[in-house]
Protein backbone atom coordinates (compact mmCIF):
# COMPACT_ATOMS: atom_id res chain seq x y z
CA UNK A 1 0.00 0.00 0.00
CA UNK A 2 2.82 2.40 0.83
CA UNK A 3 6.31 2.44 -0.66
CA UNK A 4 8.07 5.25 1.15
CA UNK A 5 11.56 4.18 0.07
CA UNK A 6 11.25 4.14 -3.71
CA UNK A 7 13.89 6.26 -5.44
CA UNK A 8 13.16 8.36 -8.48
CA UNK A 9 15.68 8.85 -11.31
CA UNK A 10 17.10 11.97 -9.67
CA UNK A 11 17.86 10.11 -6.44
CA UNK A 12 15.08 11.67 -4.40
CA UNK A 13 12.56 9.75 -2.32
CA UNK A 14 9.31 9.12 -4.17
CA UNK A 15 6.27 8.24 -2.09
CA UNK A 16 4.03 5.76 -3.90
CA UNK A 17 0.66 4.87 -2.45
CA UNK A 18 -2.04 2.43 -3.47
CA UNK A 19 -4.92 3.06 -3.55
CA UNK A 20 -4.39 6.71 -4.38
CA UNK A 21 -7.58 7.98 -2.79
CA UNK A 22 -8.91 8.13 0.79
CA UNK A 23 -10.50 4.96 2.15
CA UNK A 24 -13.81 4.76 4.02
CA UNK A 25 -12.88 4.61 7.69
CA UNK A 26 -14.69 1.96 9.74
CA UNK A 27 -16.55 2.78 12.92
CA UNK A 28 -15.43 1.72 16.38
CA UNK A 29 -17.12 0.84 19.66
CA UNK A 30 -16.90 2.97 22.75
CA UNK A 31 -15.96 1.23 25.99
CA UNK A 32 -16.16 1.97 29.69
CA UNK A 33 -13.04 1.11 31.62
CA UNK A 34 -11.36 1.71 34.95
CA UNK A 35 -7.71 1.87 35.93
CA UNK A 36 -6.49 -0.99 38.09
CA UNK A 37 -5.43 -0.25 41.66
CA UNK A 38 -1.81 -0.92 40.72
CA UNK A 39 -2.11 1.41 37.73
CA UNK A 40 -0.78 -1.27 35.40
CA UNK A 41 -3.93 -2.11 33.44
CA UNK A 42 -7.32 -0.99 32.23
CA UNK A 43 -10.33 -3.12 33.19
CA UNK A 44 -12.96 -2.96 30.43
CA UNK A 45 -16.28 -3.06 32.24
CA UNK A 46 -18.68 -2.33 29.38
CA UNK A 47 -18.81 -2.25 25.60
CA UNK A 48 -20.73 0.76 24.41
CA UNK A 49 -22.30 2.09 21.23
CA UNK A 50 -20.79 2.24 17.77
CA UNK A 51 -19.28 5.63 16.93
CA UNK A 52 -17.81 7.34 13.86
CA UNK A 53 -14.21 8.48 13.70
CA UNK A 54 -13.68 12.22 13.35
CA UNK A 55 -10.53 11.45 11.34
CA UNK A 56 -7.86 12.50 13.82
CA UNK A 57 -8.00 10.06 16.72
CA UNK A 58 -4.43 8.97 16.00
CA UNK A 59 -3.33 12.61 16.38
CA UNK A 60 -5.02 12.79 19.78
CA UNK A 61 -3.06 9.64 20.56
CA UNK A 62 0.16 11.34 19.44
CA UNK A 63 -0.57 14.24 21.81
CA UNK A 64 -1.30 11.91 24.73
CA UNK A 65 1.11 11.89 27.69
CA UNK A 66 1.94 8.19 27.94
CA UNK A 67 3.51 8.71 31.38
CA UNK A 68 0.13 9.82 32.72
CA UNK A 69 -1.93 6.68 33.43
CA UNK A 70 -5.02 8.73 34.24
CA UNK A 71 -4.75 10.43 30.85
CA UNK A 72 -4.51 7.01 29.19
CA UNK A 73 -7.65 5.87 31.03
CA UNK A 74 -9.47 9.07 30.00
CA UNK A 75 -8.52 8.49 26.34
CA UNK A 76 -9.72 4.88 26.50
CA UNK A 77 -13.04 5.97 28.04
CA UNK A 78 -13.43 8.62 25.34
CA UNK A 79 -12.68 6.22 22.49
CA UNK A 80 -11.49 2.68 23.22
CA UNK A 81 -8.41 0.63 24.05
CA UNK A 82 -5.72 -0.03 21.42
CA UNK A 83 -5.27 -3.82 21.72
CA UNK A 84 -1.51 -3.50 21.77
CA UNK A 85 -0.99 -7.26 21.86
CA UNK A 86 -2.80 -7.54 18.50
CA UNK A 87 -0.69 -4.69 17.10
CA UNK A 88 2.46 -6.49 18.24
CA UNK A 89 1.26 -9.72 16.62
CA UNK A 90 0.53 -7.97 13.29
CA UNK A 91 3.97 -6.35 13.21
CA UNK A 92 5.72 -9.56 14.26
CA UNK A 93 3.98 -11.52 11.50
CA UNK A 94 5.04 -8.85 8.99
CA UNK A 95 8.63 -9.17 10.25
CA UNK A 96 8.72 -5.44 10.97
CA UNK A 97 9.92 -5.55 14.57
CA UNK A 98 13.67 -4.93 14.92
CA UNK A 99 16.21 -7.27 16.43
CA UNK A 100 17.65 -6.36 19.82
CA UNK A 101 19.33 -3.00 19.30
CA UNK A 102 20.25 -0.27 21.76
CA UNK A 103 18.95 2.51 19.51
CA UNK A 104 15.38 1.22 19.33
CA UNK A 105 12.90 2.71 21.79
CA UNK A 106 12.29 0.40 24.79
CA UNK A 107 8.67 -0.26 23.78
CA UNK A 108 9.89 -2.03 20.62
CA UNK A 109 12.54 -4.29 22.08
CA UNK A 110 11.96 -8.05 21.91
CA UNK A 111 11.04 -8.14 25.60
CA UNK A 112 7.42 -7.31 24.72
CA UNK A 113 6.00 -10.85 25.17
CA UNK A 114 7.64 -11.27 28.57
CA UNK A 115 6.77 -7.78 29.84
CA UNK A 116 3.22 -8.05 28.53
CA UNK A 117 2.74 -11.46 30.18
CA UNK A 118 3.97 -10.20 33.56
CA UNK A 119 1.76 -7.09 33.38
CA UNK A 120 -1.27 -9.15 32.36
CA UNK A 121 -0.77 -11.75 35.10
CA UNK A 122 -0.55 -9.00 37.74
CA UNK A 123 -3.75 -7.40 36.44
CA UNK A 124 -5.53 -10.75 36.24
CA UNK A 125 -4.72 -11.54 39.88
CA UNK A 126 -6.16 -8.19 40.90
CA UNK A 127 -9.27 -8.69 38.79
CA UNK A 128 -10.29 -12.03 40.30
CA UNK A 129 -10.19 -10.56 43.81
CA UNK A 130 -12.31 -7.52 43.01
CA UNK A 131 -16.04 -7.89 43.60
CA UNK A 132 -16.95 -4.71 41.72
CA UNK A 133 -15.91 -6.03 38.30
CA UNK A 134 -18.03 -8.18 35.94
CA UNK A 135 -16.96 -11.81 35.61
CA UNK A 136 -15.89 -11.41 31.98
CA UNK A 137 -13.99 -8.17 32.41
CA UNK A 138 -11.41 -7.75 29.63
CA UNK A 139 -7.93 -6.46 30.39
CA UNK A 140 -5.72 -4.07 28.45
CA UNK A 141 -2.35 -3.54 30.12
CA UNK A 142 -0.84 -0.08 30.18
CA UNK A 143 2.28 -1.67 28.73
CA UNK A 144 0.53 -2.83 25.55
CA UNK A 145 -1.42 0.44 25.24
CA UNK A 146 1.88 2.36 25.33
CA UNK A 147 3.35 0.00 22.77
CA UNK A 148 0.52 0.59 20.28
CA UNK A 149 0.57 4.35 20.92
CA UNK A 150 4.31 4.42 20.27
CA UNK A 151 3.81 2.52 17.00
CA UNK A 152 1.55 5.28 15.71
CA UNK A 153 3.85 8.01 17.03
CA UNK A 154 6.78 6.44 15.15
CA UNK A 155 4.81 6.08 11.91
CA UNK A 156 3.57 9.66 12.14
CA UNK A 157 7.12 10.88 12.78
CA UNK A 158 8.40 8.90 9.79
CA UNK A 159 5.73 10.36 7.51
CA UNK A 160 6.49 13.91 8.65
CA UNK A 161 10.20 13.37 8.03
CA UNK A 162 9.63 11.91 4.56
CA UNK A 163 7.09 14.50 3.46
CA UNK A 164 8.83 17.60 4.82
CA UNK A 165 12.51 16.71 5.26
CA UNK A 166 12.21 17.72 8.91
CA UNK A 167 15.38 17.24 10.96
CA UNK A 168 17.22 15.82 7.95
CA UNK A 169 20.55 17.41 8.88
CA UNK A 170 20.20 16.56 12.57
CA UNK A 171 19.51 12.93 11.67
CA UNK A 172 22.71 12.77 9.64
CA UNK A 173 24.72 14.08 12.59
CA UNK A 174 23.54 11.33 14.94
CA UNK A 175 24.00 7.66 14.12
CA UNK A 176 21.33 6.67 16.65
CA UNK A 177 18.83 9.17 15.18
CA UNK A 178 19.74 8.00 11.68
CA UNK A 179 19.05 4.33 12.36
CA UNK A 180 15.93 5.11 14.38
CA UNK A 181 14.61 7.27 11.53
CA UNK A 182 15.42 4.57 8.97
CA UNK A 183 13.62 1.93 10.99
CA UNK A 184 10.61 4.24 11.46
CA UNK A 185 10.36 4.48 7.68
CA UNK A 186 10.34 0.68 7.46
CA UNK A 187 7.64 0.61 10.12
CA UNK A 188 5.55 3.05 8.08
CA UNK A 189 6.07 1.26 4.77
CA UNK A 190 5.50 -2.29 6.02
CA UNK A 191 3.78 -1.86 9.38
CA UNK A 192 0.86 0.30 8.25
CA UNK A 193 -0.27 -2.20 5.57
CA UNK A 194 0.12 -4.96 8.19
CA UNK A 195 -2.34 -3.16 10.45
CA UNK A 196 -4.78 -2.92 7.53
CA UNK A 197 -4.25 -6.45 6.24
CA UNK A 198 -7.85 -7.52 6.94
CA UNK A 199 -9.20 -5.07 4.38
CA UNK A 200 -9.28 -5.24 0.60
CA UNK A 201 -11.29 -3.37 -2.03
CA UNK A 202 -14.95 -4.42 -1.95
CA UNK A 203 -18.19 -3.50 -3.68
CA UNK A 204 -21.75 -3.60 -2.39
CA UNK A 205 -24.55 -3.72 -4.97
CA UNK A 206 -28.04 -2.56 -4.10
CA UNK A 207 -30.54 -4.13 -6.50
CA UNK A 208 -34.15 -3.11 -7.10
CA UNK A 209 -36.84 -5.52 -5.92
CA UNK A 210 -38.50 -7.99 -8.31
CA UNK A 211 -41.20 -6.55 -10.53
CA UNK A 212 -39.77 -3.04 -10.71
CA UNK A 213 -38.23 -1.54 -13.80
CA UNK A 214 -34.56 -2.32 -14.21
CA UNK A 215 -32.22 0.19 -12.58
CA UNK A 216 -28.43 0.30 -12.62
CA UNK A 217 -26.91 -1.20 -9.51
CA UNK A 218 -25.86 1.38 -6.93
CA UNK A 219 -22.24 0.86 -5.97
CA UNK A 220 -21.56 1.72 -2.36
CA UNK A 221 -17.99 2.26 -1.19
CA UNK A 222 -17.93 1.66 2.53
CA UNK A 223 -15.98 -0.13 5.22
CA UNK A 224 -16.74 -3.87 5.02
CA UNK A 225 -17.29 -4.22 8.78
CA UNK A 226 -19.74 -2.75 11.27
CA UNK A 227 -17.01 -1.76 13.68
CA UNK A 228 -13.27 -2.30 13.95
CA UNK A 229 -10.61 -2.18 16.67
CA UNK A 230 -9.45 1.35 17.36
CA UNK A 231 -5.92 0.64 16.12
CA UNK A 232 -7.32 -0.20 12.68
CA UNK A 233 -9.37 3.00 12.71
CA UNK A 234 -6.21 4.97 13.54
CA UNK A 235 -4.35 3.18 10.73
CA UNK A 236 -7.07 4.21 8.26
CA UNK A 237 -6.85 7.81 9.48
CA UNK A 238 -3.07 7.96 9.02
CA UNK A 239 -3.29 6.35 5.58
CA UNK A 240 -5.94 8.84 4.45
CA UNK A 241 -3.86 11.80 5.59
CA UNK A 242 -0.89 10.42 3.66
CA UNK A 243 -3.05 10.07 0.52
CA UNK A 244 -4.31 13.63 0.96
CA UNK A 245 -0.80 15.01 1.68
CA UNK A 246 -2.41 16.60 4.72
CA UNK A 247 -0.70 19.54 6.41
CA UNK A 248 -0.10 19.11 10.13
CA UNK A 249 -0.49 22.15 12.33
CA UNK A 250 0.08 22.84 16.00
CA UNK A 251 -2.73 24.53 17.88
CA UNK A 252 -1.78 28.10 18.84
CA UNK A 253 -3.92 28.03 21.96
CA UNK A 254 -1.16 28.35 24.55
CA UNK A 255 -2.80 25.82 26.86
CA UNK A 256 -3.29 23.25 24.09
CA UNK A 257 -0.55 22.93 21.46
CA UNK A 258 -1.89 19.65 20.06
CA UNK A 259 -1.12 18.45 16.54
CA UNK A 260 -4.09 18.59 14.14
CA UNK A 261 -5.10 18.73 10.46
CA UNK A 262 -8.67 20.07 10.49
CA UNK A 263 -10.22 22.52 12.90
CA UNK A 264 -13.29 20.92 14.40
CA UNK A 265 -16.19 23.30 14.89
CA UNK A 266 -19.24 22.99 17.04
CA UNK A 267 -20.16 19.32 17.02
CA UNK A 268 -23.79 19.88 16.06
CA UNK A 269 -22.72 21.54 12.81
CA UNK A 270 -19.89 19.03 12.02
CA UNK A 271 -17.67 21.87 10.81
CA UNK A 272 -14.15 20.86 9.78
CA UNK A 273 -11.90 23.60 8.40
CA UNK A 274 -8.37 23.10 7.06
CA UNK A 275 -7.49 26.48 5.50
CA UNK A 276 -6.47 29.67 7.31
CA UNK A 277 -6.69 28.11 10.76
CA UNK A 278 -4.60 28.49 13.92
CA UNK A 279 -6.55 26.41 16.42
CA UNK A 280 -7.52 22.75 16.55
CA UNK A 281 -11.11 23.47 17.54
CA UNK A 282 -13.70 26.20 17.79
CA UNK A 283 -13.41 26.01 21.58
CA UNK A 284 -9.63 26.54 21.51
CA UNK A 285 -10.10 29.58 19.26
CA UNK A 286 -12.67 31.09 21.62
CA UNK A 287 -10.55 30.37 24.70
CA UNK A 288 -7.43 31.98 23.21
CA UNK A 289 -9.34 35.02 21.92
CA UNK A 290 -10.90 35.56 25.34
CA UNK A 291 -7.51 35.20 26.99
CA UNK A 292 -6.00 37.78 24.58
CA UNK A 293 -8.93 40.15 25.17
CA UNK A 294 -8.53 39.96 28.96
CA UNK A 295 -4.81 40.71 28.68
CA UNK A 296 -5.43 43.76 26.48
CA UNK A 297 -8.07 44.95 28.91
CA UNK A 298 -5.73 44.57 31.90
CA UNK A 299 -2.89 46.29 30.03
CA UNK A 300 -5.19 49.22 29.19
CA UNK A 301 -6.19 49.59 32.86
CA UNK A 302 -2.53 49.74 33.86
CA UNK A 303 -1.69 52.13 31.05
CA UNK A 304 -4.70 54.08 29.70
CA UNK A 305 -2.66 55.31 26.74
CA UNK A 306 -2.24 51.78 25.42
CA UNK A 307 -4.13 51.52 22.09
Q: So what's the overall shape?
A: globular
Widest beta sheet: strand line-up:
3-4-5
Number of strands: 11
What is the strand content? 15-25%
Total domains: 2
Mean pLDDT across residues = 81
**SSE ordering:** EEEEHHHHEHHHEEHEEEEH
**Low-pLDDT residue spans:** 4-11
Radius of gyration: 23 Å
Largest sheet: 3 strands, antiparallel
Provide the helix percentage: 40-55%
Helical segment count:
9
**Terminal Cα separation, in Å?**
56 Å
Helix/strand structural class: alpha+beta
What this model shows, in words?
- The structure is a single chain.
- The protein is an alpha+beta fold and 307 residues long.
- It folds into two domains: 2-228, no CATH class; 247-307, no CATH class.
- It is 42% helix and 16% strand.
- It has nine helices and eleven strands.
- It has helices spanning 57-62, 69-78, 84-93, 112-128, 142-164, 168-173, 175-195, 230-243, 282-302, and strands spanning 2-7, 13-17, 28-35, 41-51, 138-141, 204-206, 218-220, 249-250, 259-260, 263-264, 272-273.
- The protein has a three-stranded antiparallel beta sheet with strand order 3-4-5. Strands 1-2 form a two-stranded antiparallel sheet.
- A hairpin with an 8-residue loop joins β8 (249-250) and β9.
- The protein is globular.
- The N and C termini lie far apart (56 Å).
- The relative contact order is 0.16.
Amino acid sequence: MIDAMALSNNGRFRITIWPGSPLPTPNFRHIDCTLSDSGGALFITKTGEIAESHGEIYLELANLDLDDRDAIAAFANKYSVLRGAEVYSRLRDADVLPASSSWVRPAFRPSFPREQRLAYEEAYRERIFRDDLPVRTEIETIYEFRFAATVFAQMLDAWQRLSTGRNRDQTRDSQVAYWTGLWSQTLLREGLPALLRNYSPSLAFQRSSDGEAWQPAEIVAEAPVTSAPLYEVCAFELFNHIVQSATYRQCENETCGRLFVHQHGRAQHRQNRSIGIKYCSYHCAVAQNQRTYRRRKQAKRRNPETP
